[in-house]
Amino acid sequence: MAGPIPELEERATECARRLADADRVLLASHIDADGLTSAAIASQALERAGIPFETVFEKQLDADAIAEIASTEYDTVLFTDFGSGQLDEITVHEDEGAFTPIIADHHQPADSETHYHLNPLLFGIDGASELSGAGASYVLARALADVSEQPTERTMTTDGGAAAARADNRDLAALAVVGAVGDMQASGGELHGANEQIVAEGVDAGVIETSTDLALYGKQTRPLPKLLEYATDVRIPGVSGSERGALSFLDDLDLELKRTGGGDNTGTGTSTSTGDGNWRRWAELSDDEKQTVASALVKRAVSRGVPASKIDQLVGTAYVLSEEPVGTELRDASEFSTLLNATARYDRADVGLGVCLGDRDKALDRARTLLRDHRRNLSNGIELVTEEGVTHAEHVQWFHAEDRIRETIVGIVAGMAMGNAGISRSKPIIAFADKRDASGSDAPDRNDSEKREQTQDVKVSARATHSLTRQGLDLSVVMGEVARAVGGDGGGHNVAAGATVPKGEERAFVDRADELVGDQLS
Ligand code: C5P
Ligand code: C5P
Ligand code: C5P
Ligand code: ZN
């Protein structure tokens, strides 16, 4: 049977055969939306193939983490959404016979090779915009179904299509789409290349629906006024950023946009004291109503001089998980991915994995609570950066959040703040945040100066736009080279990358990065 991405087929099959030969597998994945969906895809594929496994998550796959993995009894380790960038470390353990690595990743590979390495970049597919870690894991899952010849569940129901999709793992395409969207691969409003082929399989399997729709975040769960007020990607003058503006815009439309009977029936607990809960959500509107609101938005934008190229960005492809209930975060790929980041980036990957694997009770409740905190942290972070401003070098701009923004979300904040007042979209942004001491710098018996000494490393996150990468920018190279030059390490993608460097090297880091970015863009 043909896999979704012909270029990857042969390697995926080799990796799948190796997994099928293993007595048991240690599955190691990255702690973000893409890493969680990767793990969820891989674990379901292993389970269906009857291969015993255990799952672990790592914030970063550094030398210590790899050594710990090597010290386990497992002979076969499946790395998803990381591993390529750490190949030099991994192959040391492989050569010593500690384990056989199988890697399904999309990050820039380090200068080493290993046999079971499934990465789009090795086959001419862009790992930053055409295939995510979850996408690579999906390709592997499809191959695993093939080599292990999963029995088609015999059902006498009309559910034959769904059973067939499960039998060849095509139902897992929904999670692959969430991973790709979570890694912000939907540029220009839609997914491209290999990702599109996965979308097509998901549509075919009945787990994904696509439509041309308003490209705003929160179509499933945000009350309409909030959907418009918080729309920051495309600013609509008088509406974006203004609660009153959004309310009066909606009141002026001749539509019944409040719920009759009142109350919040989505179970998402988003109703607030200002009565947001009485407003309908975008996803509940009829096509005609959506059309009316969208036209009014476009008209407002045109009349206030928003350029046509910006107005185009108001519309994009929506990826809907058709089996999930309307009005929940799980139905919209973008909201689903944010829900997952809200768990994994706060040391609760177990919660996000539970949600991906279908736990709609305890895990989902917990995830929603974490999401409220995540949103507050993002909005506080964006406010902090916007108010304090960034420092502009010639080719880059930067800020240091110290301990005021969590290192695991400082990159998301930096990306979302781009375009705000004083924060340019025509230069990459570099963000620093203190690393929290894993050994517990919060211990009450340490005084402040001791605590400060404990913070020896700084997290660096860099973000850019696809328009800059088209001009030659590659942040994974910048983060890697500059970090190594100052005694740290880093990597990632051309458009989004990160590093860890020793505290005190921030200035040197910015100077070198500024120079290298200048070279890349010249
Ligand atoms: O490690 P991983 O590849 O999963 O993480 C990619 C990160 O890069 C995500 O946090 C995503 O939000 C970010 N990103 C971005 N802008 C892009 C592409 C990715 O901020 N255009
Ligand atoms: O948190 P995550 O990296 O998944 O966010 C992806 C994108 O979703 C952000 O860049 C932003 O455009 C949007 N978002 C938002 N409001 C939130 C969370 C995410 O608009 N509360
Ligand atoms: O942590 P952050 O969201 O800034 O990461 C952006 C991208 O850079 C992710 O794809 C992440 O996996 C990668 N990264 C890396 N090495 C690091 C830090 C981040 O490859 N030391
Ligand atoms: Zn990823």
From TrEMBL:
InterPro entries referenced in this protein's UniProt entry, alphabetically: DDH_dom, DHH_CID, DHH_sf, DHHA1_dom, SSDNA_exonuclease_RecJ
GO molecular function term, any single one: exonuclease activity
Bias kind Low complexity: ranges: 267-277
Domain DDH: 25-142
Domain DHH-CID: 216-315
A Pfam family recorded for this sequence: DHHA1
Region called Disordered, residue ranges: 260-279, 436-465, 489-508
Position of the signal peptide: none
Matches recorded under Gene3D superfamilies: 3.10.310.30, 3.90.1640.30
Biased segments, Basic and acidic residues type: 436-456
SUPFAM superfamilies listed in its UniProt record: DHH phosphoesterases
DHHA1 domain: residues covered: 429-517
Residues forming coiled coils: none
Protein name listed in UniProt: Phosphoesterase RecJ domain-containing protein
Taxonomic lineage of the native organism: Archaea, Methanobacteriati, Methanobacteriota, Stenosarchaea group, Halobacteria
